[in-house]
Amino acid sequence: MGIFNRKANKNAQSKPQIVTDYYNSNTWLQGATGTSFSCLDRIASEFALLNFSIYDVETRQKVKKHPLYAILKQPNLEDFHFNFFYQSAVDYYNKGAYWLKVFYQGELVSLFRLNPKQVQIFRDENKKRYFAYNGVRFEDDQILYIPSRFDYSTLNGGSSIYDAVPEVFNTAKSLEGFTQKSFTNGVVGKRTVIDVSGAYPDLTTEQAKAIKDGFQAEYGGLQNAGRPILKKKGIEYSELQGTSSTDNQAAELSANRKFQKEEMGMVHAVPMGLLTGTSTNLENDFALLAEFAVRPMATQFQEAISSLLDENKYYFEFDYNGIMKTSMATRVDTYTKQIATGVLTLNEVRAKENLSPVEEGDTTFVPVNYMPWNKETKDAYMAKQKAIANGENQKESTETDEGVLNSQHSPNGDDKQ
To answer: How far is CA 13 from CA 68, 136, 237, 290, 300, in A?
Structure first.
C-alpha cells in the first residue's frame, strides 16, 4: 500500500520542533574557494529550477493531481521549493541529502532537511540500516536518504566532493590565498612610495612602522577608496609603477587563476563560459551543464522521490527542457516543428513560455499524409485498396466487352441489315 491513499490534511504540515531541523548549508562551504562556490551555485540553482511531474505507470500520462505536488512545492510550513531543493543539492555535494519524513494519520505531510554533519548511519544485528541524528534513532523508512555519488559506501554513505578529491581543492585554495596576499601586499600592480626624509631625517624602525601602519589604516582598503590624502609638511607621496619582475608575477598569477577555474570547472562539470560569463554558445554550454552536472544528481533525487509513491501506479520525473537556454528564433522554429509533427500541442508550448492556455489549444496536429497505424486505419486502408482493385477490374471488364463488340462489327457496315 502506498504512502498516499487519502487526501493529505494541509493543516497538518509541521513546523520544525528543534532548531537543527533546519540547516544552513552555506556553513559547509566556508573552506571552499570562490570558484568552487560559483560552480556549486550554478548547479544547485539549475537543479532547483527544474520542472517535474508525476506519471501514471501504465499510460505514461502526467498525473495532474496528487498530494505529493503540494509537499514538494512547500515541503513544510517554513520552507519553499526553490530553497529546499537548492540547499538539498548543496547537501548532496557535501555528503548527501537527508530528508526527515513527517506523517499525520498515516499520510506524509512534511519533509525536513537534516544536517548531514550530524547524521550517522548504522546497521543493526540483522544488517538493517538505521540513522542516528542528535542522539535520536530513526528507522530507514523515516529518512529519505539521497547519498552523494562521490566515494559512496553502503556502510558510511556518500562523501563530500571536497573529500573525494582533496588535492584539487587544497591546491585551488592555496592559489586563491596566494593571489589575495599578493594583491594585498602590493606584489603586483602600482605601489605607493612615502618619502619622509624631509620630516624625519633620522627615522627609526619603530617610526617607519608606525607611519606605514597609519597610512594603511587611513587610506588603504576598499572602505577608504577615493578618500583624499592629507599631505603633511616634509612628506612626499609618489607612485611606483610595476617593474618587469612584478609584471611577470602578475601574468603568473593570472595563469594560476585560469588554471584554478579550469580545474574547478572540470571537477564540477561546469563549462568555463558559464563560470566566467564569456560563453559564446549558451545553448551548447547549458546542454553540457544539464547532461554532466545536473542530470546525474537529479536522477538520484528522482529515484528517491519515486520511492514515496506507489511504484505500481506512479513514478516521478524531472523535466530538463527548462535548462536548455536557446534564442527566441531557435525556440520558435523548434516549437513549430513539434506542433506540426504532433509532439506538442499549442497549449503545451504556451505553458513552456509561461503563457495562459487558449481554447482548443489541446488539439494535436499531424501532417495530412500521416495516419495512425491502428486497426481502424488498416481496415479503412484495405477497404480502399479493394475498392480501387474492383474499380480497375470493372474498367478492364468494360474495355474487354467493348473490344468484343467492336471485333464483331463489320468495318464496311454490312452487318447492319
So the answer is: 13, 21, 67, 33, 25
SS (H, E, C) the chain: CCCCCCCCCHHHCCCCCCHHHCCCHHHHHCCCCHHHHHHHHHHHHHHHCCEEEEEECCCCCEECCCHHHHHHHCCECCECHHHHHHHHHHHHHHCEEEEEEEEECCEEEEEEECCHHHEEEEECCCCCEEEEECCEEEEHHHEEEEECCCCCECCCECCCHHHHCHHHHHHHHHHHHHHHHHHHCCCCCCEEEEECCCCCCCCCHHHHHHHHHHHHHHHCCHHHCCCCCCCCCCCEEEEECCCHHHHHHHHHHHHHHHHHHHHHHHHHCCCHHHHHCCCCCHHHHHHHHHHHHHHHHHHHHHHHHHCCCCCCCEEEEEECHHHCCCCHHHHHHHHHHHHHCCCCCHHHHHHHCCCCCCCCCCCCCCCCCCCCCCHHHHHHHHHHHHHHHHHHHHHHHHHHHHHHHHHHCCCCCCCCC
State pLDDT tens for residues 141-152.
999 999 999 878
pLDDT tens figures, 24-43: 544 445 446 778 888 999 99
- Specify the amino acid at residue 199: A
Q: For residues 300 and 318, give the distance between their C-alpha atoms in angstroms, rounded to a whole number.
A: 11
pLDDT, one tens digit per residue, over 322-363 is 787 777 788 888 889 998 888 899 998 888 787 888 988 888
Let me know if 113 is exposed, middle or buried by CB neighbors in 10 A (0-12, 13-18, 19+): buried
> C-alpha angle 75/77/83, rounded to 5°?
55
pTM, entire model: 0.67
